[in-house]
Amino acid sequence: MVNKIKVQKLAGFRDYFAEDVKVREHVINIFKKVFEKYGYEPLETPALENSNIFVGELGDEAEKLFYKFKDNGGRDVMLKYDVMTPMCRVVAENINNIIFPYKRYQIQSVWRSEKPQKGRFREFTQCDADTIGSSSVICDAEFIQMGIEALTNIGFKEFRVNINNRKLLSGIIQFAGATEKEFILICISIDKLPKIGRDNVKKELIEKRKISSEVAEKILDVITLTGETNELLEKLKKQLNNIPIAMEAIDELETIFNYFKTIKLNEKFYRFTPFIARGLAYYTGPVWEFEILEGEVGSVAGCGRYDNIIGKFAGREIAATGGSFGIERLVEVIKSRKMINFSANSAKSLVTVFNTDLFNNSLIIADQLRKNNISTILYPVPTERLDKQLKYANKKNIPYVIIIGPEEVANKTVVLKDMKTGEQKKLTVEEVIDQLSL
């Protein structure tokens, strides 16, 4: 006897059976259609990249998660950590051939050596879209509109885009008396405001970030101002009118909100949120996140403008904006809420085989059904009893079974059995095709 190989998938990785694959493909196809509707082009990059494009660019914490090694040629390579960095490499390598603004989307696997736990995996799908080569915040507004359309098409009804501008936060921090050096640490803390509340953010700013109580209070007073979007922007204009970078941010935000007003975008889907910071240090302008409100799912996409990243690869300044949707997160929510029901089986009919002598009759009928785009399984074992074939169809949730016995062959008919109701009809093959094509 051959020695049995021990089978066990690697921790942090997953197998996808039919139902999971279908839900993922459904979600991905919606994103693709919406992206292409807005003029974004697909891009795919290799699984393996030279590690130098990632090392030193994403921070020490990210580098701990790299799948990095030497290949057989002694080159330092790694599985791609994200899809944005390879996109930067592609733009830099092809800068003379790309027509700017370049709108690209990319839906591919990335790999991170995470500690496996619920909701965290070592291989997952990133769904990114970006506009490269334009500093206009119209591109930011358009992305937000596009994301709202995609989530609506997937079936979400209660969600919101929280919108802010990193320049505004920089202006607020300047107004409060903090230094630019403290900017990122302050942003990390105030981004937690919805989760831990004002008092805990203030405590963290003072105790962990070493910000004075007066400065922390001043920052929180500004970022917690309330009011409708226009009212809130007016309040900020009055308070920050001597801070040029803050006024620049407010002007950009007004452009975005005027875009929404012009196209009559439903106001329930977006909100100006002055404390949203987004954790990544490379954002330079508008930032936003898509938040599912139903069931406290939280953020499913992080987005923003990053005008200083691609220049490091290309040797010249190239503006960029865009974002990333969490496919896995969306799929899990869809499955848990049963928003989309896909059968694991894709066949609409099973053609049974009465006996070996009638196998060719069954084969011809199965072929006719397939030629008419009716997904069909031909039972492959002519010697097995009919009741076993029917049990197979039942277990696989195949809705219709076609039976061809000697009597049906003589009369040039078949029996069509509805597996849900048990109803049986004698029909011609043409009548079966008509019924199953509905």
Plain-language structure description:
This protein is of the alpha+beta class and 438 residues long. The strands form three sheets. The chain has an eight-stranded mixed beta sheet with strand order 1-5-6-11-10-9-7-8. The longest helix is centred in the first third of the chain and has 20 residues, at 18-37. The protein has helices spanning 18-37, 60-63, 84-93, 138-154, 166-176, 183-190, 193-207, 213-223, 229-239, 244-262, 310-314, 327-336, 359-371, 386-395, 406-411, 429-436; strands spanning 41-42, 48-50, 68-70, 76-79, 102-111, 123-132, 159-165, 270-272, 286-292, 298-305, 320-326, 349-351, 376-378, 400-403, 414-418, 424-427. 32% of the residues are buried. It is elongated, with a radius of gyration of 29 Å. It folds into two domains: 18-336, Bira Bifunctional Protein, Domain 2 (BirA Bifunctional Protein, domain 2, 2-Layer Sandwich), CATH 3.30.930; 349-436, Anticodon-binding domain (Rossmann fold, 3-Layer(aba) Sandwich).
